[in-house]
Amino acid sequence: MSTLWPFPLIDEWTPAQKLTVYDFCRLMSEILWQQYEDVLLKEMMRIDRENGFDHGDPVADRNLELPFEDDLTF
Asked: pTM of the prediction?
């Protein structure tokens, strides 16, 4: 595990404090996604377009082939 934290204060927290912050951030993430999924997706797509990725491109929209060649019969 890396000891290079962006915030040195974190090194002084107890494991319980770190877990509390982690749980809070996870909860906030879930709540934001539930309430603002459409807005967040639109923003993610806008950022992708600015960086050269086109969500309307049928070539970019294809799924990659998986390297499995088994013919399993069930």
From this structure: 0.56
